[in-house]
Every structure is written in structure tokens, then in C-alpha cells.
Write a structure and sequence with these properties.
The protein is of the alpha/beta class and 348 residues long. The protein has helices spanning 9-23, 41-49, 60-65, 84-90, 99-112, 134-145, 169-181, 195-199, 214-218, 330-338; strands at residues 4-8, 29-33, 54-57, 72-75, 93-96, 116-121, 150-156, 186-188, 209-212, 236-249, 272-278, 290-292, 298-302, 307-310, 323-328, 343-347. The strands form 2 sheets. Strands 1, 10, 11, 12, 13, 14, 15 and 16 form an 8-stranded mixed β-sheet that branches. An 8-stranded parallel β-sheet has the order 8-7-6-5-4-3-2-9. Helix 1 packs across helix 2 (41-49). Bound molecules: pyridoxal-5'-phosphate.
């Protein structure tokens, strides 16, 4: 069944063990973030099999999908108060920034007869989640210290997700000092955007955890968007089927209206070209984060359910019914895994 997402589990395992090795000298442990691949259990198992000891996801449905994997589970988005009970059931720890939610978690713990670990988040500039006011954060810490059901596990911060604000040495040192003041050793200081700072020696020793999604799956850090040495960047591939193959002009032959952003598109006249249409579209993938394996194939564009390719320069004798393969990046995998139209297969 196409479109088909192919996950190379051997490559994913190798990426995980390589990343563990890269972070080790800096004293940084890894929580693998599974949200980009909707917590596919085979991919998550490959990571844990390679030595990853904690998995994190932003959604409870995803944590549910991996509940049978034996390792620590983190809910890395603040729990919805209405889902506090399921959060306590499915996650060992969660990220928190609201006293009302802590109270809801506490009540849920009592009902379940189970304790819950809390990681308090500080906002260090990205303006997504976290306390701006450190007094409020200390007060939340005190609340947790006085709770019979909650345990203060660590402090954390997130970077480069909403405003593309990056971590720096001073900010991380401040977060660590605050954590130590609150009596915790777990300092969870970022994501794939913090790797570059670590490699240049800018992450203070004592910062103990990174939460990594992109780096593990794609072998890519997120500050300069560099590929990391010795890691695979083709672990995730997509294959789709050709449903039309015709020579067509490269210039549309009609009056041109505006696209769905209200802009008028422009076209370059390259004469008659061989165009393929794939049974694949924006519903299934992000065409800006995928690259044909055949370097002589070019993506022209896509609508919801059709993708147009220029295959004129391809050396392969393509026919209708053949498949075309792509290497995928972050947003393409995100959408492929969320699309119920995309099948999956695994390379061991
Ligand atoms: C998504 C997410 C991550 C992982 O980010 P990557 O850039 O994929 O490494 C880490 N922390 C939080 C809070 C997240 O939401």
C-alpha cells in the first residue's frame, strides 16, 4: 500500500547510541522525544534498545501507544487539567508551569494512589512555556515539597520552538543555579537546538539532560541545521506511486489567479517537460521537507492529494505504477505519521 513510510530501525538505533556517546563527556543524558513520529512503538523500541532510558511526548495518546515499553515516560507538554488523571496514569513525570494544574495532578495522584514527578519549566526567552517570574517558580517548588503526592524532579527550559530563541551559557548556568537552589539535580536544558552550544563547550557542566527528537531521527542539530558526524540522515523514507506521466509545457496555459495565501504564483518557461503525478499530497506530507533520492527528479508542487514532479532528467525509465522515493525531514515525518492514509514498513 502506498504512500509508504519506511523507517530504518537499524539506522535509528545507531543514531541513538551515537548521540548518547556524543553527549556523555558533557554529562548530558537524553530523553528521546517521540512526538515527531507519533510514538510509533517500533521506532521507540529501537531507541530504547540502543540505550535510551527515558521517552518524552507532548500527547497522552502517544504515551499510551508506548505504555508497554519499560522505561521512564515524560509528558513534555503541560498536562491539561481535564486530563490530569490520565497524565498520572501514563507519565512518570510531566512539565508544569501552573499551580492549578499541580493541584489537579495532586488530586489525580491521590485517586490513583500513585506519586508523580514534576519538572518545573522556566521561560528563558523563547516565550512558549515556562515561568518568567522566578518567585512564582520557587513558590510552585515549595507547593510540591509540601505535597504528599508530588515530587520535585527537576527544572527545565525549552528553546527555539516558537520564537527561535537560542540557549546561551549564562541562561543555562542560571537555570542550573535555580535548580540546585530548589534541591534538584535534573537540569533539562533544551532540545536539538542546544547541541551546537554543547559541542562548542558552552553548556555548563551539571546541565544533566537534553530532550532530543530531531537529532535522533535525522542526525541533525537545530541551531545551524548542520548534519552531525557519523549519524544517518536517511532513516525515514517515503515511497509514493506514479498515477500520471506526460509531457507537458512548463508554463500553465491559462490566466493565473492567486494561490491559497492570496499571492499570484510565477513560473519559469523551461519548454516541454516530462511530468509525473504521485498519489500523495499535502495531507500526507510537507513538500518542503522531503528530497527525491534520485537527484535528477525535481518537486514542482503539490495540492492536497496530488504531487507534481519534473522527471525529465531522470535516468530511470519511469512508468505509471512505478514508485518514487524520498528522504524525509522533520515536518514531512510529522505529517506522514499523523496521516491515516500513509502505510508503514520497517527495515530491521
Ligand atoms: C518537541 C520538544 C522537544 C524536542 O525538540 P527537537 O528539536 O525535536 O529535539 C524538546 N522539548 C520540548 C518541550 C518539546 O516540545
Amino acid at each position: 500500500m502506498y504512500p509508504l513510510l519506511e523507517a530504518n530501525l537499524a539506522y535509528i538505533g545507531e543514531n541513538a547510541s551515537r548521540m548518547i556517546e556524543i553527549c556523555k563527556p558533557y554529562g548530558v543524558g537524553i530523553t528521546a522525544v517521540t512526538k515527531v513520529f507519533s510514538a510509533d512503538i517500533n521506532i521507540a523500541r529501537a531507541m530504547v534498545g540502543a540505550g535510551i532510558s527515558a521517552l518524552g511526548d507532548s500527547r497522552l495518546q502517544n504515551l499510551e501507544a508506548i505504555k508497554d515499553i519499560k522505561c521512564e515516560k515524560w509528558l513534555i507538554r503541560m498536562p491539561s487539567p481535564s486530563e490530569a488523571q490520565r497524565a498520572v496514569e501514563l507519565a512518570d513525570a510531566s512539565f508544569n508551569t501552573e499551580l492549578d494544574t499541580l493541584k489537579a495532578l495532586e488530586a489525580a495522584c491521590e485517586k490513583a494512589g500513585k506519586t508523580h514527578s514534576v519538572i518545573l519549566m522556566q521561560d528563558l526567552g523563547d516565550l512558549r512555556e515556562g515561568y518568567i517570574n522566578r518567585e512564582d517558580m520557587l513558590r510552585a517548588g515549595e507547593y510540591i515539597d509540601n505535597s504528599a503526592w508530588l515530587r520535585l524532579y527537576g527544572v527545565g527550559s525549552n528553546f527555539a520552538c516558537l520564537s527561535y530563541a537560542y540557549a546561551d551559557t549564562e541562561k543555562l548556568a542560571g537555570l542550573m543555579a535555580l535548580g540546585h537552589e530548589m534541591g534538584v539535580k535534573l537540569i533539562s536544558a533544551g532540545n536539538s537546538s542546544t547541541i551546537d552550544l554543547m559541542l562548542s563547550g558552552g553548556v555548563p557542566y551539571g546541565v544533566s539532560n537534553f530532550r532530543l527528537g530531531e537529532a535522533l531521527l535525522f542526525g541533525r542539530e537545530r541551531a545551524k541545521y548542520d548534519y552531525l558526524d557519523g549519524m544517518h540522515n536517511d532513516a525515514m523514507m517515503l515511497r509514493a506511486e506514479i498515477i500520471e506521466l506526460k509531457d507537458k509545457p512548463s508554463m500553465p496555459f491559462a490566466d493565473i489567479g492567486c494561490d491559497s495565501h492570496g499571492a499570484k504564483p510565477t513560473f519559469a518557461d523551461k519548454g516541454i517537460r516530462k511530468r509525473a503525478i504521485l498519489a500523495l499530497g499535502k495531507v500526507d506530507t510537507d513538500i518542503d521537507a522531503m528530497w527525491p533520492i534520485d537527484p535528477n527528479i525535481e518537486i514542482i508542487g503539490a495540492s492536497g492529494d496530488h504531487m507534481a514532479l519534473d522527471v525529465t532528467d531522470s535516468a530511470s525509465e519511469l512508468r505509471v505504477g512505478d514508485t518514487v522515493a524520498f528522504r524525509l525531514g522533520y515536518n514531512a515525518v510529522l505529517r506522514c505519521c499523523a496521516s491515516s492514509y500513509v502505510s508503514r514498513s520497517y527495515i530491521q
